[in-house]
Design goal:
The structure holds two protein chains of two kinds. Chain A is an alpha/beta fold. Chain A has helices at 43-50, 72-77, 93-103, 109-119, 132-145, 162-179, 190-196, 214-220, 272-287, and strands spanning 5-14, 17-27, 32-36, 58-63, 78-81, 150-154, 182-187, 199-204, 207-213, 221-227, 239-245, 249-255, 266-269. Classes of the chains: A alpha/beta, B alpha+beta.
């Protein structure tokens, strides 16, 4: 299976500042991928590179096997819903569908009409008068009805209230199931990803900390609590993600495929949020110990 | 894409073209009357017109419209064309449909450009309306009012013929370019307005006289061809100086670009020799009282050098100036296409 999205040494510089540097990533097809990271981690930059809104300053990125050059054939295969789900305020819902039909050779008018109908959007309503959630749904409709193979969504629910957020994601899941498309969804909220995605990529300071199937990640990460111990003495196959120590006790967060056999440890499972937080905290400490930990907003 | 562009542009297009349609209506109704007056009148043509307030109002309206169109099109069509999309983020929506940015921009520019050509054609309507005036000027009729100003003169030239088309297209290109660089609609509109007005002022002042080689005429100053003379210094001062002599060319409707006095060595002189102060015609008197003065100037070798464009070069200059404006517009459009293909988030 070839990756729908592949980055190698990918970097993007704005002036002197690197917004994304040395990013390696592969996204398998047929997945709903959650791209998670704190604000400023480079998620938006990465997605904009993937749709060709930006050109890389370093490295390479391939989307569906080719570079995102902005060619028409490539455009038709990749859908993108930008940050804050932009729509034309002065155009009506029906105008937006017409726009989609005019600009996309593979436009699925039945799908679009059906969606608008089901979502209860009034076709004559101007997009500027829609609620944030409805606008996001309209932008998503445009993204889906062009029938892309890969749909990229840049923080599509960031500005929505919790209810609209859930509805949007549920609806997205439905569309994914119907159409067999691959989705990459960026968010700074783990709860969004937990609800919608089956594959996780954690991006911190423009580097991929961990990437993998969510079920698999949860199954292979463990929290070990026991008497104080030097991390160097742990078995080699146990990768330490984070550690904390008191005078007598050590707590490790390890990743391993093998079962934990040492009876000294009290082993507990992790939630996705703990897992993501561990990876985010890790990178900040490793690179710049004086810096405060990146915060992750939790939404419950 | 044409549909979308039209959908976005139609509001501002309707306002501008609607206002222009009213101006064209006013011109169309009064234009034939002007030709009728010319038909029945002789040298008193401008005197007859001088009393007609409506014609004067329409004349000013048409001229003002032709000058206002570029600024309005640049600010209200050009500047928001890209800036509004980038400001609202909708470029992210439209560029991710199955369409290239190049085609997106080409369609927008094409449609708006077509509109700019239509709007700029107001200059042709004004030219049609004014043709009895221009014909009268060509016959040598004259007065001191605005109607008898030759159309080659800088203050009118930019409102006639095809120059307004060139200026409007350039203004559109300026607006789009500024919008792409500034990326904020209101700021882009303000900058565009300033730039377009500056270009409209600079073109007649700095460019227009350099486009075509003028005719040259060297003549003696005579009582009959003298058109003006200036006395420098306080009136009644001990040492007034005579300068800025201007002579008329026998070319109705010509645009005189240079009118200067040279001494026997061919050097340009700012003032006539000192003796001329005593014999020059006093202010308010006819040049005929100073024939001796002119004779002596001619004998000592003083000549008047005049450079001018004859009225017959009007359309040649129109094409030339329009070509320059369109060339500039093309350059800006090229820049826009280059810029649009680069990073824009």
């Amino acid at each position: 299976m070839t990756a729908v999205l592949r980055a190698q040494g990918l970097g993007k510089k704005y002036g002197r500042r690197w917004a994304l540097s040395d990013c390696d990533l592969e996204v398998p097809p047929g997945r709903v991928v959650g791209l998670v990271g704190p604000n400023g981690a480079g998620k938006s930059t990465f997605l904009n590179l993937a749709v060709g809104m930006l050109a890389p300053s370093a490295g390479e990125i391939e989307v569906l096997g080719t570079r995102p050059t902005g060619r028409r054939a490539q455009r038709a295969k990749v859908g993108f819903v930008g940050q804050d789900t932009p729509t034309y305020a002065a155009l009506s819902v029906a105008d937006h569908l017409r726009l989609g039909a005019h600009l996309n050779p593979g436009w699925d008018a039945a799908l679009a009409d059906d969606r608008v109908d089901r979502l209860g959007l009034d076709p004559r309503q101007r997009a500027g008068r829609l609620s944030g959630g409805q606008r996001a749904q309209l932008a998503l409709t445009l993204g889906i009805a062009k029938r892309p193979e890969l749909l990229l969504l840049d923080e599509p629910v960031a500005s929505l209230d919790p209810l609209a957020r859930r509805e949007f994601l549920q609806d997205l899941m439905g569309a994914v199931a119907d159409q067999q498309l691959s989705v990459v969804l960026s968010s700074h909220l783990v709860s969004d990803v937990e609800r919608a995605c089956d594959y996780l990529v954690v991006l911190v300071d423009s580097r991929v900390q961990v990437a993998g199937d969510i079920e698999n990640l949860l199954a292979t990460h463990h929290r070990l609590t026991g008497p104080r111990r030097d991390p160097a003495k742990l078995p080699a196959e146990q990768l330490v993600v984070s550690e904390s120590h008191t005078d007598r006790q050590s707590t490790f967060l390890v990743r391993t495929d093998a079962p934990i056999l040492d009876p000294a440890w009290e082993v507990s499972q992790l939630g996705l949020e703990d897992l993501v937080l561990a990876y985010m905290g890790r990178s900040a400490e490793q690179r710049n110990p004086s810096r405060s930990r990146p915060t992750l907003e939790a939404l419950r | 894409m044409i549909w979308l562009t039209w959908r976005q542009l139609r509001g501002s297009a309707a306002v501008v073209l609607g206002a222009l349609a009213l101006a064209v209506l006013a011109l169309a109704v009064t234009g034939p009357q002007l030709a009728d007056i010319l038909r029945v009148s002789g040298t008193d043509f401008f005197d007859r017109l001088g009393t007609d307030g409506t014609k004067k109002a329409v004349f000013y309206l048409g001229t003002a419209a032709a000058y206002a169109v570029p600024a309005v099109v640049g600010a209200f069509w050009g500047a928001p064309l890209v800036a509004r999309e980038v400001e609202a983020g909708t470029h992210r929506l439209v560029w991710n449909q199955s369409i290239t940015r190049t085609r997106w921009l080409a369609t927008k520019l094409g449609l708006a450009g077509l509109g700019a050509v239509v709007a700029g054609s107001i200059g042709l309507v004004v030219t049609w309306w004014c043709h009895p005036l221009d014909e009268a000027v060509g016959r040598g009729y004259t007065d001191n009012g605005p109607f008898s100003v030759p159309r080659l003169w800088p203050e009118l030239f930019g409102s006639r013929g095809i120059v307004p088309i060139g200026m409007t297209v350039l203004a559109l290109a300026v607006g789009v370019t500024v919008g792409l660089l500034v990326r904020r609609t209101v700021a882009a509109m303000a900058v565009t307005l300033a730039v377009v007005v500056a270009v409209q002022i600079a073109t007649p002042v700095l460019v227009q006289s350099h486009l075509l080689a003028p005719e040259r005429l060297t003549t003696t100053i005579t009582a009959t061809n003298l058109r003006g003379i200036q006395m420098a210094g306080e009136p009644g001062a001990a040492d007034p100086r005579i300068g800025r002599v201007e002579v008329a060319v026998d070319q109705p409707g010509a645009w005189v670009t240079q009118n200067r006095t040279v001494d026997p060595d061919g050097k340009v002189v700012e003032f006539l020799p000192a003796w001329a102060e005593d014999c020059a015609p006093a202010p308010g008197t006819s040049p005929d009282t100073a024939v001796a003065c002119f004779t002596r100037l001619a004998e000592e070798g003083y000549r008047q050098q005049v450079e001018y464009l004859p009225a017959s070069r009007f359309w040649a200059l129109q094409w030339m100036e329009t070509g320059v404006l369109l060339g500039l517009a093309l350059g800006l459009v090229g820049f826009c296409f280059w810029r649009i293909r680069r990073d824009l988030t």
